[in-house]
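Structure ticket #2291
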Amino acid sequence: MRDFSDKDLKDFLDREAARINTPEFIGEDPVQFPRRFEKLQDIEIVAFLSAIIAWGRRNMICRDAERMLSLMEQRPFDYVMDEGYEELDPRMNIHRTMFASDLQYFLRGLRKVFSDYGSLDAFCAAVKAGDDAAPSWKFVEELQKVMCAENDGKTCSQCLPVNLKTTALKRINMALRWLVRDDGIVDMGVWKSIPKSKLFIPLDVHVGNTARDLGLLTRKANDRKSVEEVMETLRRYRPDDPAIYDYALFGIGIENSKARAE
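Resolution: structure written out below.
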């Protein structure tokens, strides 16, 4: 890519974000699944389940998210509170290396949160994640404690990353973008516990490569330090809503990947 001045780069990212952040984006993205629901708890469950399987090809992610909704008979909150997940064969495949035993692990923790706090948003507020400089990592740290307590002290890296000092937390940051950003186009804006100014972008391979091409990232790894490096510039460009640029970086990255494959 050609070199940009700082102003030109901001203008370019603004244009690309506006181009990608449209209703047409929804149909091929996992965000379509939580958007089907109106009840907060249903939205939360489906958002996090769709996000934690979000690695690999998007069509496979969407296929398997659809299967999970079918397992829950399109009634996620009732399914969780009725402990329907305990009837699953733990060996059943959910998505790639994730199995029903992992889904059971995750839903046991969610049930405890809903029983004690009413919603994940209320839980997030109670643990004051929104006051932290890195709300998503604080949220996962506290949620991990609940998950472990409900699963005999065990962790499950398929559900939540274990090493919070190094993980980019891509899947959770994506779910939080859906739940927190409130422009009413793609993201739903149903959470109040985290300000959108404190969101981090979900850094994956495509986003990382695009960020390097544009000079936003010097590190080779797609880890927590890399997310923080990218966000330093993005927060300067749009202090109130830096995660809007995820659309630009993701969209450019996907298009470049397709071009290389052709």
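Closing remark: The mean pLDDT is 95.
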